């Protein structure tokens, strides 16, 4: 969030006003003292009109800061739910070969 704010030459206060939050809360999110709500991805994108790369970078940054990735199960079909939940359970014990194959498969799916 800070990188976007600085790129747009917004002060902490200016970005906070645009997001409808206090400057103190924005500061706490930027330094990792507060969790960043996942809906802020859409809010920030709506305000700053991010490129696809910037949006992906923001998502990764927020997920890394929060140390979790939200799953919106209600928006998924049954197959998506099954795979998502299985992945969430197994990722901690997956070996590097499996992780590499999964990453390649997902990246190839995007192309």
General description of the model:
It contains seven helices and no strands. The chain is mostly helical. The protein folds into two domains: 2-66, lambda repressor-like DNA-binding domains (434 Repressor (Amino-terminal Domain)); 73-110, no CATH class. The longest helix is centred in the middle third of the chain and has 15 residues, at 52-66. The two termini are 28 Å apart. The mean pLDDT is 90.
Helix content: 55-70%
Spans of at least 5 consecutive residues whose pLDDT stays below 50 are none
Order of helices and strands: HHHHHHH
* Name given to the CATH architecture of the largest domain: Orthogonal Bundle
Keywords:
111 residues, mainly alpha, 434 Repressor (Amino-terminal Domain), 2 domains, 7 helices
